[in-house]
Structures are given as structure tokens and as C-alpha cells.
Amino acid sequence: MKYFLMCAALLACTYILSSLVIRGIAKAKKNHLITTKKRRMARILLWLALLVLCAVGYLGVYNHSDPEAKEYLNRPGEVSVTQIKDGYVFDGPGNGTALIFYPGAKVATEAYVPLLYHLAEEGMDTFLIDMPFHMAFFHSNAAKEIIGTYDYSRWILGGHSLGGVAAALYANANPDQVDGLALLAAYPTKKLDDNLSFLSVYGSRDTVLNRDAYEKSKANWPADGKEVCIEGGNHAQFGNYGFQKGDSAASVSAKEQQQETIRAVLDMFLQDANDRKS
After folding, report:
1. Of 41, 57, 219, 238, which has the fewest Cβ atoms less than 10 A away?
2. What is the dihedral of CA 70, 75, 79, 84, to 10 degrees?
């Protein structure tokens, strides 16, 4: 809601600015006072106003979560869901290891609630970050505050699509804070520390992920990085937000794709029995 209010405020400011500029030009023409410098300034202001309008329009359109995804926020069970300033905490039977998750670009935060709820249910507490304008690059350092606030022995950073790219950038810049990195349909753009536990998961029918860039990114992976391909999976089904433009239809359900993802994450990062509460 707060982001919609910010968009509305930007639109209102843009409208007022454009009106003032147009009114000033009209008045100057009428009084024969317009100069080359004023014309140039008016053009710049109008282009800036147009740029703001385009940006607000672009950021205001995003993929909404499926209705059933939000039901997990109030689901009875051993996972406690708490809303915090930066998103949600899913506190399950896990004790030592926690995952901080960055959503994909222009995807509703709540679309990833089922995935992270079930991870917490299986022993890995999770933090789902609510990104400004649904773009992780606007708050890529969100993990810093979470790590500084909560007490876990191991921190795993994860993300989907461009959210994964942002998570990888944080892991690259803060190797002393992050023990592992789980990327879903994403890849690192900078070299990662070889001591970092690394997992890459993607769907075989994903046609949104840039495969050429993905293959080249393997030069940035830690030496012991692990790759998991989900047969029949696509780009969008790591979350619950329906079909994504440019993607291919999956031959497995979103539930199946997410279950395979959860198994891969747990096998990679939750190998110590001490991670589970007695």
C-alpha cells in the first residue's frame, strides 16, 4: 500500500510540474519574453516529467500473487508467521539455519509465501523481504538488518530471478555474513567466494532465464557449486503468481516444482541434525 501512495504522490508532483511549465511557456510566448535558454529548460523539465510518468507506470504494474498464497499467512500449524518492517518471518521447528529471500522483480511479495512457509515447516526458518516497488535492487542490503537483528548460526541468502541477482551481489560484497546462496532461475554477475555454499535451481522449460548469460555466469560460481534442473519446471512456478510473459508452460504443477526446490535447498544447506529443535 505504501508503494502505491508513493506512486500517487509522484504522479501528482509530475502533473503539477508539467502544468506549471506549460503555463509558463504560454505566458512567455504571450509576452514575447521567451528565450532560447528558457525553451531549453522547458524541454528538459517536460522530458523529466515524462520520464517520471513512464517510471511510475512501469513500476506500478506487477504480477500479483494467487489468492490462495496469502492464506498461508494465517494458516494454523507449527510455523508461526510474523509481519516485520521488511516483510515476513516464518518461524518453524528449525533452530540454527535461516534463509533470507529476495523476490523476483515486479512480483508480489506474497507470491513466495507458500514456498517459504513449507521451507520453515521442514526446519529452515525463512525471512521474506518486501521490496520497494517490487524491485530487489532498491533494497539489496535488506539482509544486513535481518542478520544484525536475529540470532542464527548460519545464514543462507536466496532469491528468484532478478531478486537472486541482487542476493548474489550482497553475498559477493559480504562474504563474512553469508554462509550459503540459493538462486532460483538466477545467476551471479560477480565472482563469489569459494568458501560459499552455492545452489542453483532452474526449470527445464524456463524461457525467461537468459541461458547464455547463465552458462557464462558459471565462471563466477564457487568451486563446489551445485546445480539442480527441475524437469518440466518453468520460470514463474517458484512463486504463486500465475503465468509470466515470455515463459513456457510447465509440465509439472507449481506445488511439485516448489517441493523439488525445497528438497534441493534442504539437502544442500540443512544437513546438520542439530538444525532441528528437539
Report:
1. 219
2. 40
Residues 6+ apart with CB under 8 A from 162: 104, 105, 135, 136, 137, 186
Query: Which of 175-214 are b and which e, b meaning 16 or more Cβ less than 10 Å from the residue's Cβ?
Result: eeebbbbbbbbbbbeeebeeebbbbbbbbebbebbeeeeb
Q: Give the span between the Cα atoms of 190 and 180, in whole angstroms.
A: 15
What tens-digit pLDDT sequence spans the chain (278 residues)? 444 455 555 556 655 655 555 565 555 555 555 566 655 665 666 556 656 555 555 555 668 989 888 899 989 889 999 999 999 999 999 989 999 999 999 999 999 999 999 999 999 999 999 999 889 888 889 999 999 999 999 999 999 999 999 999 999 999 999 999 999 999 999 999 999 999 999 999 999 999 999 999 999 999 999 999 999 999 999 999 999 999 999 999 999 999 999 999 999 998 654 444 43
Q: Determine the distance from the C-alpha atom of residue 275 to the mean position of all C-alpha atoms in its chain, rounded to a whole number.
A: 26
Scanning 64-160, the segments in alpha helix (DSSP H) are: 113-121, 142-149
Report helix, strand or coil for 78: coil
Question: Could you give the 3-state DSSP secondary structure of residue 101?
Answer: strand
Classify 43 as helix, strand or coil: helix
Phi, psi (deg, nearest 5) at residue 196 = -80, 130
Task: Tell me the pTM.
Answer: 0.80
